[in-house]
Amino acid sequence: MSISLDEVRHVAKLARLEMGEADLVALQSELNALLGHFQDINAIDVTGCQPKPHAVPRQNVWADDEPVFGLPREAALQNAAAAKAGLFLVPTIIED
Amino acid sequence: MSSLTELSATEIGALLRSRGASVIEVAQAFASKEDTVGAFITRSAPDSEACARAQVMIDAGEGSALTGVPIALKDNISTRGLLTTCASRILSNYIPPYNAMVVDKLESQGLISLGKTNLDEFAFGASTETSAYHVTRNPWDLERSPGGSSGGSAAAVAAHLSPVALGSDTGGSIRQPASLCGIVGYKPTYGRVSRYGLVAFASSLDQIGPFGRSVEDCAHLAAVISGHDHHDATSLPTDPISARDLKTGSLKGKRIAIPSELFDDSAEPGVLASVDSAIQALKGEGVEFVPVSIPEITVGVTTYYIIAPAEASSNLARFDGVRFGPRESGDGHVNVVAETRGKLFGKEVRTRIVVGTYVLSAGYYDAYYLRAQQVRGKMAAKFEQVLSTCDAILSPTSPCVAFKIGELEGDPLALKLLDYCTIPANMGGFPAISLPCGLSDGLPVGLQLLGGISRDEDLLQLAYSVEQCLGVKITPPKM
Question: Considering chain B, what is the average pLDDT of its residues?
Fold first, then answer.
């Protein structure tokens, strides 16, 4: 299995990563090498094996139903690239 | 008083309690030592108020074995008011508004922060070379890597810039650098140390753990940082790890498994010879070694390099130039986010995000991510089966000794194979510890012991007994 340059460009776009053409070409080469190695896992018979998404599974972990203080607004905003009126400020998403 | 920096953390704690030195005196001895290996990203002067509080605790006979002892923290552990960069330009100005739970615990027990240590960017790597800031050097040979991703923490302890340090371990990032730097590194059972405030890489694999110059140091530090935390839903509802019971015990009758797959020719002959010498010494003490075969180990690295980037691609979506870090300019919100991430993430981070996005995408999810999780489950079950009849599983920690900086730069797959022996512990959540077992070509070799889930105290006791039996005390030349 190999990945085309257009597929690399598409996945980078999905991941919100703006990359130059030279970087995309280098990435395509590295991805194809990795995907070749990924075929190794097909050598293991997984018939009937359950997927293991967690190292040590826990179930139904609930927080106590008690009010707790969160971060003050100023602290939550202190690392924002831009803020206004106590809110994160982002470029326009929907035009008028 | 330079001799203070020669002492282990446990020795420093005892010295402080006997009034042989003051907390501020010890902290300044470490803080004033020149960082010739580039271990730190942010090196902070010891906080005089924190030193005073620790001194009060000691004078009142309160605190723990490590109260007043200095410590260095990997720079992906959140510290309130102190720069936390993850060695990335995308967090070049990030000042956390809260502490990681482990930092709160360190402060409550009076340990003194010496600052934040270097790492591979977002902990993606095994050499500390992908840091956006600088390369960290191995105290044993400044031309060589300390390993990674917690290379700064390992180098700081090996160079006696700090008696203990914290790192994080997702596929071996504590144990491999500990091995390459000739110190002890310990990854506790997943869930016994809270991940709250650790900047997430792969949440099902990440675990914070200690570095020290002895098993005892690591055990004492694990006792401070462990315990249930309701902030972390994956935290286990168990007591903190106990370090009180470490004692010189007989190894007679212990059963230790040795998987053939971790002793194949992918490891350097010098590493295998050093580990074999240790095995022979332990046999002499009555340890029974049980040969086993776990074929899934051979695809552990592949499995890891599907699962970890998948989780990382999701976790790193939060870095978008809105809530943290600098923002690049662009036309519209989506382009601003893409420009910010494209320019401020390094090459290795971009690669892993794209790999993770690809294996999670429609059409490939079942073939890669789901199948990797099935292999993970099968591998973990085999390890549990072996551990049901054995006290631990022994192997080299790293297949090689410290390599030259830049040596593996053009061979990303070779770099990834460095985690071959360490990845299984993360896959199954098992506790594992690396301790020095000798030298090969003048460079340290590490031995790994892997134990059963939540049997951390048993593993630490076994590692302590092995350490006493081997009697390996190694120090970098000129340190």
Answer: 95
